[in-house]
Amino acid sequence: MPLHHRPLVRLARLAALLLATLAGAALTFGAPRAHAAPHFASGIKVGETTDHSAIVWVRLTQHPAADPSVLADSKPSDADTPWHIPAHAVPGTPGQARIRFAPAAVHGASPGARPGPGAWDQSPWHTVTADTNFTHQFTLTHLQPDTAYHFEAQARDHADTPDHVHRPNHLTGQFRTAPAPGQQATVRFALAACQSIRSINNPVDGHHTYRRISTFDPHFFVHTGDILYYDHPPLAKNRDQARAKWDLMFAYRDNHTFHRNIATYFMKDDHDTLKNDSWPGQTYGDLTFQQGLDIFREQVPMGEKTYRTQRWGRDVQVWMLEGRDYRTPNPRPDGPDKTLLGAEQKAWLLRTVADSDATFKFVVFPGPVVGPDKPRKSDNHANPAYAHEGAQLRHFLAKQANTYVICGDRHWQYCSVDPDTGLTELGTGSINDQHTFGGHPQEDPTYHRYFSPRGGFLGLTVQGHTATAQWFSGGPLDPATGQPQVLHTETFQAQAP
């Protein structure tokens, strides 16, 4: 379906997103002001949506906005001096938070209409403290499948302040639950990888690609990892600095607006765990690998494990894998006992993919399985370092009907087909052209059906037995359509098992 012929109901959702953007603009970057109650300068993240539940992450802050000068003021004048992020880039504050939520307006209501007064449910107030970096994750349950929800995050300073005396600060958002496993539904989702403070478009908006993804109007988003880089300036080499990077990354206006209006499944990789090509037991400055794991769980809406699978109706199932927590150290000799996934996760993957009756199966790895990768890399399944497990996975996944691998981590977009097994891999590329540093392996006609050194995002639309993959630019919109620029399209027809 052409992008400019989408149903009018999507226009209503985009209108609601625009209104939420304008309403939240005052809560992004600007000079800090005195406050009467805690604020949400570090944003709100919605994630882990199922057909009956969702998680809403909040952080309470002293000010309604981050100060864009905080990094400039901390940067040393001597270029040879290591530059570290200020430990309190976006100061948090103790207080209480709660979530009010309700299904969106019924069919036939005016576009963007909000639920009536009696439709709202709400969580209890929860007290946040410095122990969790002033964050909390609210699990919303007993939701309806395939339903748009509005929510309002509220914050107050303490329990002794009644609402009629001191109105809580609030911020609104929205998300959609998944269709039930047997339900036929068109599903759109987007994926991107690799973003950093180094690659923001400007110090107020952050990453403009989030605006482009919103225009695609996905039902959900998968961030495939490297959400931030502890080991890129400004550096984060202890727990406080690591937390500060998270606090600031989601205070940027575009990042802030997107993640409270589109539900996200967050994955992690090396740079948002510890450092480049890391494995368990390592350290980075005073930051330990275990602290990296704990901080990631603290900073994103997350379920029981960092690997999981989610069904979206009859036709779509997505697997999101963990590539750091269980791996054998990279330098170990390759062989049957060397693993990137770990025995438990790999057994779970093989079992659940084989058991799935979804029309299309998308297995998202934080690194490449098919590749090809850059020379001299030794960190993923496309490299000789994990060749044995990589070959095992390629042969297994290639035999599963209508199964596709999606890869984050690499700073170029591509669609490749393994010459030996026929397994197709879709590479998301980095979040924008500013983040395409580090080089690429060049186009290889024995693998690539599409190759580009560009950044942006990958969009997938599944309608019945057809899946359409589109690689989008993170740059200016297409002037002819008003939509993100499509750099390449691949269409896949479901084959009988």
State the main characteristics:
Immunoglobulin-like, 2 domains, six-stranded mixed beta sheet, 497 residues, single chain, Purple Acid Phosphatase, chain A, domain 2, globular, disordered N terminus, seven-stranded mixed beta sheet, alpha+beta
Please describe what this structure looks like:
The protein is of the alpha+beta class and 497 residues long. 17% of the residues lie in helices and 25% in strands. It has helices at 8-24, 70-74, 209-216, 239-249, 253-259, 289-299, 343-355, 387-398, and strands at 44-47, 54-59, 95-103, 121-122, 126-128, 135-140, 148-156, 169-176, 187-192, 220-223, 264-266, 283-284, 287-288, 308-312, 316-320, 360-365, 403-407, 413-417, 424-427, 448-452, 456-463, 466-473, 486-493. The longest helix is centred in the N-terminal third of the chain and has 17 residues, at 8-24. The chain is globular and about 65 Å long.
Assign the CATH topology of the largest domain: Purple Acid Phosphatase, chain A, domain 2
Instruction: Determine and state the CATH class of the largest domain.
Output: Alpha Beta
Measured by DSSP, the beta-strand proportion falls in: 15-25%
Q: How far do the termini sit from each other?
A: 26 Å
Mean pLDDT: 91
- How many runs of DSSP E, i.e. beta strands? 23
* Count of domains: 2
Q: Classify the helix fraction into a percent range.
A: 10-25%
Regions with little confidence, pLDDT below 50 for 5+ residues: 1-28, 31-35, 107-111
What Rg is obtained from the alpha carbons, in whole angstroms? 22 Å
Sheet of most strands: 7 strands, mixed
Q: How do the strands line up in the largest sheet? A: 14-15-16-17-19-18-20
CATH architecture of the largest domain: 4-Layer Sandwich
Count of separate DSSP helical elements: 8
- CATH level 4 superfamily of the largest domain: Alkaline phosphatase D (PhoD)
Assembly category: single chain
| Global shape | globular
Class from helix and strand fractions: alpha+beta
